[in-house]
Design a protein that fits this description.
Number of strands of chain A: 24
Number of helices of chain A: 17
Largest sheet of chain A: 8 strands, mixed
CATH class of the largest domain in chain A: Alpha Beta
Largest interface: A-B, 131 and 131 residues
Oligomer: homodimer
C-alpha cells in the first residue's frame, strides 16, 4: 500500500528517543538490512543520523509485509508508524535507538538499489578505488558522514571566530595571472584572448596583500587553491586553505589570535580544552634538537651531538665526517638493545635515505657497557662513559649515531626519532602545538645555481639580518613561522615586506633581473608605492586540520570528492579528452595523437 | 621623532567617541588630507571605520609638526595621542568623530605614497578602468568598504541560516569533468594526462545530486562557478553562487525555507523586515500579465489582450497578426498622452527590437476619445469604448498596442512596461519577492533543430505533463522555479529527476543518443541506480543578491577583484601569454603566432 503523499520525514531516524511510545512519526532513509521472522519483517532503516528498526507486522498491516519482504538493501523509503518500546530481550544497548522500534503503518518506496559493490556497514577495509568510484555509496557509511560533519562544523567555527575578531571575508578570484614561482600553476586558456591563459591560484598571496594596501585591515577566507605538482601522499591538486592577512599588528598578536582560534576550534568541534599560549622554537633549534622543521614534541628523544666525544677516535667513518666539517650526532632508542640485526637494518635504511653513509649503533648493557659497533674498539673507557652520559642511555637502550654534515645527519636522525617513537607508541593522545620561527629566508637550489624563497618572495627578513641579504643570503633569517601540531604542519605565514625597495632587493637576491621582476610582479611593486601598511599573514591547510580533528590519516577521507594520487577523479573519470571543437575555440592544438576526439569518452 | 615600537592601534579611528577626553590611544591609518594653519597642523587620518582629525601642536611637540608638515596624502601612520574635545566653532556635525580630535604625542611614519591617480574622497565619477587598475586605492574609498562589509555579513548570515537548519556545508571540486551543455566550460589542461582536460564547474549540479544519493540529505555551499560566455553587462566569467540541495522534501518546504532565508538576510544585514510567504505565479501567467519571466510586481501595469476588440477592424497590421494566429496586446502608459513624437519613437524601438513590426498608440482625451493612430479610423465608437475600458485608460493616458505572435508581443510589451515604470518612477522602495513556477521543461533551438533544457537536463517534469515528453515536449512543464525580487532573478532551481528511466527519456528528448548520454553522463546514470532519494534544490547568484542588498547597480562593485566585460583583470593584467615551456609541459601548441613567449609580459 503506497501513499503518494508520503515524502517528508517528521524526524531523523535517531532523533526520536525523547518521544512518548505511541507517537506517530514519519522517517525517511535507506534500507540497511532486512530480517524475515516468518511473517514478521524487521528492517533497519538509516539516514545520516543513524539507524532505526522498523517492524512490519502481518496482523496490523498484511499488505506492508509483502512489500517489506521484497525490499532490497539500499532501497529508499518514507515510513509512517508509531514508536513502540522493544521487548526486554530485544533491547540493543549499542544502538542509540536500541530500546525502541517503529511499527510501520504506511510506507512509500521511492526507489530501489542494485546490489552495492561493497559493504556499507562496519569497519572492514574496502578497496579505495572502489570507494572513490562509488563515492555516493561510500558517503552513506556513518564514518564518512561523521567526517563531513566535523568538516562542516570546523568551517562554521573558523569563520565565526574571524568574523567575531573583526576580520572581513573577501572572495578573491580564481582566474588570475600566472606568476610562476616554485610549484606549478594550473593554466586556463582564454577563449576571448587566444594564446593567453589565466592561472588558478596556488594561494591568494598577492591579492590579500593588495587588500591590505586597500585598507581592509583584517582579511580572511577559506579558499580553494591549486598546485599542479607531482603526486604526494599528503597532497591533492586542489586543496582548501584558511587564508588570513592583518595590518598594523606584530607577529605576537597574530600568534595570540591563532592560538585562540585553535582553542576555539578544539573546544567547539571536539569539546577539548587545549593549552595556550603555544611554545615557540627557532628553526635552528628544531633542526638541532629534533632533526625536523616540524618537531613532534609529544615525546622528548632529543638529538645529541657526540662529535666532541668521538673526535680523534681513529674510526674512519666518524673521522672523515669530522674532518669534512661535519660531525657525529645521535638519538637514543629506549629499550632498543634487544633489536634484531634485521630491525636495526630497517633503521639504517631510514638514515641512509637522507644521505649519511650508515648508522652506528651501541647497545647499552646492564653495567652501562657498550657493545655492537666496531667503533667501540676505538673508544677508551672514559669516552664510552661520556657517550652513555651524553645520551642518558640506560641499560637496554640503543644509542644510534649518524656521521656526516649537519643538515644530512639532522634530517636523518629526525626521521629515525619519529620511527623510534612510532615503534614505542610514545605519542600518547596529547595535543602539542608549537610555533616554529625564524626560518631561513632562502634555500639554495644547486641544480639551478640560485636561491629560492623558502616561504615565498614576499616574506620580510629579520630586521637584524637585512644586511646579510647581499653579503650572505644563506644566513639571512626570515620573519616566517609555521604552526605545528604533533609533528604535522598545520600552516605557516610571515611578516611581509611592505617597502618597495626591500621587495626589489629580494627579487634581485632571487636572481630576477629588474626587467623580469617588472614583468612578473610590476603591478604589485606599483601597488607598494601608494601607502602600504605593515602587514603579516598566515594560511592553514584546512584539509590537514580536519584530518587532525577527525582523527583520520587519509587525506582523501576528509574531502567529499577527492582525486587519486594520480590526480584523477574515479567517480566522474576526470580529466577527460577535450573535443577538437573545444580546443579549436581556445586556439590550441594538442601535440598528443588522437587526444582531441570528437566526443568525450 | 619616530618610535620603532609604534605599530598597533588601540582603537579604530571612529570607535573612540565613547572614551573620556584625556584618554591616551593609538590609531593607525592613512592621511586623507592635511591643513597647515601656521604652525598648527591638522591631519585627517582614516582607516576602514572612518576619519579622525589629528592635531600637531607646535607648543607641545615641535618635532612632530615638522614631520606633519611634510606628510603626503595616503601616507601610512601610527599615531599616539590624547583625545580632546574640539572647540565649539570647530565641531563638525557630519562626522562621527566631529566633536573630538586627537592631540598627537608620538608618531610613526610607516610609508609614504605617490600622488593617487584619482580622488578617494566624495562621490565624483572616476573612470572605471582607472579604478580597476588601482583597485587597492579604490578599495580605500568608504563606499567600497561598506559594500565589502555587506558582502562579508551576507556570507556569514547565509551560512549560519543553513547551518541552523540542518544543512551541511560540503566543498565540491573545482577540477571536474567537462560535460558540455549550454554555456561553455573553461578547460584546464592536465599535465599528468597530456591531451586531457579538467573543466571548471558551471555549477556543482551533478555533484550535489550525488551528495543526495550519498545520504547527505541537506547540502549547502557558497561556491565559485565559472562560465566562458561572451560578455554581458551583468555577468562575470567567475561568480559566486549559494548552492543548495535537499532530499525528502516537497517544493513547498524548499520555498518556505528560502522565504525564511531572505527574511533573515534582510533583517540581519539591513534591519529590514520583509513579508513572507512570497506570492507565486506561473511562468505562463507571468508572460501573459507581465511579458516577463521575472516580473517586477512593485507596480501593476498589467498587459491586456485586445485581440477580441480589434478583430475584424480591417486594419492591416492587426488583421495580419490575428490571421497568423497571433493577436493584439497592449499596456497603458499613465499620463503618456503628452509624449512627443520622438518619445513615442523611443518606445517603438523597444517594441521592434523584440520582433513586432511596430507600436500602435492611442492618446486618451478628456472625454475618453482616442486619437493618434490610423487604426482609430477603423474602429466603431463602441470598439473604441471597449478599448478604453479594456485598459482602464483615463484621460491623458497613452494606450500602447503591439500586434504579432504571443511570445514576441509579450516580451516586447514586457520591456515596454518596465520602461514606462522607469520613466514614471513607479517602483518606489518596496521589496517585492515572487516565485515564478512551472517553467517550460524545454525550449526549442531553431538553429540546431532540437530542444534544449530550459533549466538543466536534471529537472523533473510536472507529474501531469510526463506523458507529453515524447508526444509534445514543447508543452511539457517543469517542476522548476525562480525567485525574483523587484524584477531581478535572484536564483532558481527545480525538483530533480531521481529515476534513471525518466532521466534517460529526458536525455533522449534532448537529442542525445544512448551512447552520447552514456559517454557524458554514464557515471551519473549509474549513481541513480543505487537508491536515489527524491530531492530538489536551488541556487542563488550571490553577487546579484549582494548588489540588491548594497543598493548598487554595478556588479563589479560587489566583487573585490572583478574582471572587465572583456574578461580581463586590469590590476594584474590577466590573462597573460603562457610561456612556451608551460605549453610544452601540457602537451599543447598554440595556433596563435608569437603567443608562447619565453617570458610573460
Amino acid at each position: 500500500m503506497n501513499h503518494a503523499d508520503l515524502l517528508e520525514r517528521t524526524h531523523y531516524c535517531t532523533e526520536i528517543t525523547h518521544l512518548e511510545p505511541g507517537t506517530t512519526i514519519r522517517v525517511a532513509g535507506w534500507v540497511r538490512k532486512r530480517r524475515d521472522l516468518g511473517n514478521l519483517v524487521f528492517i533497519d532503516l538509516y539516514d545520516r543520523s543513524g539507524i532505526l528498526q522498523v517492524v512490519f507486522d502481518p496482523v496490523r498491516n498484511p499488505d506492508l509485509v509483502v512489500l517489506a519482504q521484497e525490499m532490497k538493501r539500499e532501497s529508499v523509503l518514507t515510513v509512517e508508524g508509531t514508536i513502540s518500546m522493544r521487548p526486554d530481550e530485544a533491547v540493543n544497548q549499542s544502538m542509540k535507538t536500541g530500546r525502541i522500534e517503529l511499527i510501520a503503518s504506511r510506507v512509500k518506496l521511492h526507489s530501489t538499489s542494485r546490489v552495492p559493490p561493497f559493504h556499507l556497514i562496519g569497519d572492514q577495509e574496502v578497496n579505495e578505488e572502489l570507494r572513490l568510484k562509488y563515492r555516493y555509496l561510500d558517503l552513506r557509511r556513518s564514518e564518512m558522514f561523521r567526517i563531513l560533519s566535523v568538516r562542516h562544523q570546523t568551517y562554521q567555527v573558523v569563520r565565526k571566530f574571524y568574523s567575531d575578531n573583526g576580520f572581513i571575508e573577501v572572495t578573491t578570484p580564481h582566474l588570475i595571472r600566472s606568476t610562476p614561482e616554485g610549484a606549478r600553476d594550473f593554466l586556463v586558456p582564454s577563449r576571448l584572448y587566444p594564446g593567453r591563459c589565466y592561472a588558478l591560484p596556488q594561494s591568494p598571496q598577492i591579492l590579500k596583500q593588495i587588500l591590505m594596501i586597500g585598507g581592509v585591515d583584517r582579511y580572511f577566507q577559506i579558499v580553494k587553491c591549486f598546485r599542479d605538482e607531482d603526486s604526494r601522499a599528503d597532497r591533492q591538486p586542489e586543496f582548501s586553505q584558511i587564508d588570513v592577512e592583518m595590518s598594523f599588528v606584530t607577529r605576537d598578536t597574530l600568534f595570540r589570535i591563532h592560538e585562540e582560534l585553535m582553542a576555539v576550534v578544539y573546544r567547539e568541534v571536539l569539546g577539548i580544552e587545549i593549552q595556550t599560549p603555544f611554545p615557540r622554537m627557532t628553526y635552528s633549534d628544531a633542526l638541532v634538537d629534533y632533526g625536523s622543521d616540524k618537531p613532534d614534541i609529544r615525546f622528548d628523544l632529543k638529538l645529541r651531538d657526540a662529535t666532541d666525544v668521538l673526535a680523534g677516535s681513529g674510526y674512519q667513518l666518524t673521522e672523515d665526517a669530522i674532518r669534512n666539517g661535519g660531525g657525529v650526532r645521535g638519538v637514543v632508542y629506549p629499550g632498543g638493545a634487544g633489536l634484531s640485526r634485521k630491525q636495526i637494518g630497517d633503521l639504517e635504511r631510514i638514515v641512509r635515505s637522507r644521505g649519511p653513509g650508515g648508522l652506528i649503533t651501541f647497545k647499552t648493557g646492564d653495567g652501562g657497557e657498550l657493545t655492537g659497533s666496531p667503533l667501540g674498539k676505538h673508544l677508551e673507557p672514559e669516552r664510552r662513559l661520556q657517550l652513555v652520559q651524553r645520551f642518558d642511555a640506560r641499560p637496554g637502550d640503543l644509542i644510534c649515531l649518524a656521521a656526516g654534515g649537519f643538515e644530512e645527519t639532522a634530517w636523518a636522525l629526525g626521521d629515525l626519532r619519529l620511527e623510534i617513537a612510532r615503534r614505542g607508541n610514545m605519542t600518547g593522545d596529547s595535543l602539542k602545538f608549537l610555533w616554529v620561527i625564524d626560518f631561513p629566508l632562502f634555500e639554495y637550489v644547486p641544480q639551478e645555481s640560485r636561491y629560492q624563497a623558502m616561504h615565498h618572495p614576499f616574506t620580510a627578513p629579520l630586521a637584524q639580518d637585512e644586511n646579510l641579504l647581499d653579503s650572505n643570503p644563506a644566513l639571512c633569517r626570515a620573519q616566517a613561522y609555521d604552526l605545528v601540531l604533533n609533528g604535522v604542519e598545520l600552516g605557516g605565514g610571515s611578516v611581509r615586506i611592505f617597502r618597495e625597495d626591500l621587495q626589489c632587493r629580494i627579487f634581485k637576491a632571487l636572481g630576477l633581473t629588474k626587467q623580469e621582476a617588472e614583468n612578473r610582479f610590476g603591478f604589485f611593486l606599483e601597488a607598494l608605492r601608494y601607502g602600504t601598511p605593515p602587514h603579516c599573514g598566515i594560511a592553514f591547510g584546512m584539509d590537514r586540520l580536519i584530518m587532525m580533528l577527525a582523527g583520520t590519516d587519509n587525506l582523501r577521507d576528509v574531502i567529499a570528492f577527492p582525486k587519486t594520487l594520480q590526480a584523477a577523479c574515479l567517480l566522474t573519470n576526470a580529466p577527460s579528452p577535450a573535443t577538437s571543437e573545444q580546443m579549436k575555440m581556445l586556439g590550441l592544438k594538442s601535440l598528443i595523437e588522437n587526444s582531441g576526439k570528437k566526443e568525450t569518452t
